[in-house]
Design goal:
The protein has about 450 residues and is α/β, with parallel strands linked by helices. The chain has 3 domains: about 90 residues, Fumarate Reductase Iron-sulfur Protein, Chain B, domain 2, CATH 1.10.1060; about 160 residues, FAD/NAD(P)-binding domain (3-Layer(bba) Sandwich); about 140 residues, 3-Layer(bba) Sandwich (FAD/NAD(P)-binding domain), CATH 3.50.50.60. It has 17 helices and 18 strands. It has a 5-stranded parallel beta sheet, sandwiched between helices. α5 packs across α7 and α8 runs parallel beside α17.
């Protein structure tokens, strides 16, 4: 690229990527737990997609029973540490806290859950669950993301022999590769993987189903198969100049940052991030924290149409990100390397987005990060026999998570288009029940 931002010192990088939400001290956690009203009909539990018994796990903190608290949490959510740190709790459990009605600060559920799970990891994750005796049946899982891990863990409790096939070298999916370091550490996700392996789950990394192992072999080896693949195909801008040096995909950029090898990640002095979702925010704030002098977020619609959460937007503003709303990228300008991003102004007419003729303007940049969404690898899904796909997603029975091919079940991004980690964890857990009932002919 034409201009690369100067490298920072190791201390500067570490300071820039320090966790935004520090852990509670033991005293603070105890005090916060004692604020909980232990509601009988807990709205926070209902708002949590995995329906953790939040009042109970908090009550156990207040009595010093962190082991029991951890068991309560994990019985509902197998990736609870990731969710405690990366979930949009303001929108979910904490957003439903009854303290809001009193005009008071809600219980810090996310931080309390993190407190418990940090303790659990520090204690080297003692075994809290005993898998059932082997039932003689085996299940193959495609993808070691949160949906696949949750499904695998739950199946071991039923006595299944479970093998996960993961294309990447490291298991964990988005939790391992795609969450900004200032939200959580990559090791947090890897610790969850280790916990699930201790239940007896086999994880074969670097194995791509359909290439390294055929679907036919998979079906002969296992009594059922769970599809837990994520959104692996970045969406293109479909404008000229995308092939230039200095144009990168947001997920690739974020993944490089999660490795914490800061000096190996090149970033431009002036960076344009195209998109307005949570991943776009991550890419923009990371670029700024890596040393970019100016970072611009370019979005074809207005602030009110942004899919990013409010707290993500506020974070970007605090980091000094400049926003270009109602700006439609037209082309990337340069000679082999990015020199500018040319855009058209837009407006919404009768609910439809329209570009304004002759409204072109250029933003001088030397790096463009594409963050306009990801798609499922439909070629991969199309290779699975008798699998029904609609709008790029796998169609499942909403109760059993069984697909149109009876031997296959699915959950996570491939059925919901890319929701939160906690949604994937719930899907995987529920699919395990569907698989168990299918194999043993239970209704």
């Amino acid at each position: 690229m034409n201009n690369v931002a100067p490298k920072l010192t190791s201390k500067e990088y570490e300071a820039n990527f320090a966790e935004l939400k520090p852990a509670l001290t033991d005293v603070a956690a105890l005090a916060e737990a004692n604020r909980c009203l232990y509601c009988y009909d807990s709205p926070c539990m209902t708002a949590c997609p995995t329906h953790i018994d939040i009042s109970t796990f908090i009550k156990k903190i207040s009595t010093g029973n962190l082991r029991g608290s951890a068991k309560t949490i994990l019985s509902s959510n197998w990736v609870a540490l990731t969710c405690a740190k990366a979930c949009p709790v303001d929108e979910l459990c904490e957003g439903a806290c009854v303290y809001h009605a009193k005009g008071e600060k809600p219980i810090q559920i996310g931080k309390l859950q993190r407190h418990v799970m940090d303790w659990y990891v520090e204690k080297r994750m003692p075994q809290l669950f005993t898998p059932a005796e082997m039932n003689g049946k085996t299940v193959g899982i495609i993808g070691a993301g949160p949906a696949g891990l949750a499904c695998a863990a739950e199946l071991t409790l039923f006595g299944f022999e479970v093998t996960i096939y993961e294309a990447s070298k490291l298991a964990g999916g988005l939790d391992t590769h795609g969450i900004a370091p200032y939200k959580m550490q990559q090791q947090d996700s890897l610790n969850e993987v280790k916990m699930i392996k201790r239940l007896g789950v086999k994880i074969k990394t670097g194995v791509r189903v359909g290439k390294d192992i055929s679907f036919e072999k998979l079906e002969k080896t296992h009594d059922a198969v769970f599809i837990g693949v994520g959104l692996s195909m970045p969406a293109d801008l479909k404008i000229s100049g995308e092939e230039m040096i200095g144009v990168v995909n947001a997920l690739d950029f974020v993944e490089n940052v999660t490795k914490r090898k800061w000096k190996s990640v090149d970033v431009g002095r002036r960076v344009a991030v195209i998109g307005a979702g949570n991943t776009a925010i991550d890419a923009a704030t990371e670029a700024k924290r890596l040393g970019a002098e100016e970072v611009f977020m370019v979005y074809r619609r207005g602030r009110e149409q942004m899919s990013a959460y409010d707290f993500e937007f506020e974070l970007a503003k605090r980091d000094g990100i400049t926003f270009y709303f109602h700006a439609q990228p037209k082309k990337i300008v340069g000679k082999k390397k990015v020199q500018a991003l040319e855009c058209l102004e837009t407006r919404i007419v009768n609910g439809k987005l329209k570009t304004i003729p002759r409204s072109e303007f250029k933003i001088p940049v030397d790096m463009v990060i594409k963050a306009v969404g990801q798609n499922i690898d439909e070629t991969f899904l199309a290779s699975i026999p008798k699998l029904k796909i609609k709008d790029g997603m796998v169609v499942v029975n909403t109760k059993s998570y069984q697909t149109s091919n009876p031997k296959y079940f699915a959950g996570g991004d491939c059925i919901n288009g890319g929701k939160e980690v906690v949604n994937a964890a719930y899907d995987g857990k529920r699919a395990a029940y569907g698989i168990h009932n299918f194999i043993f002919k239970k209704k």
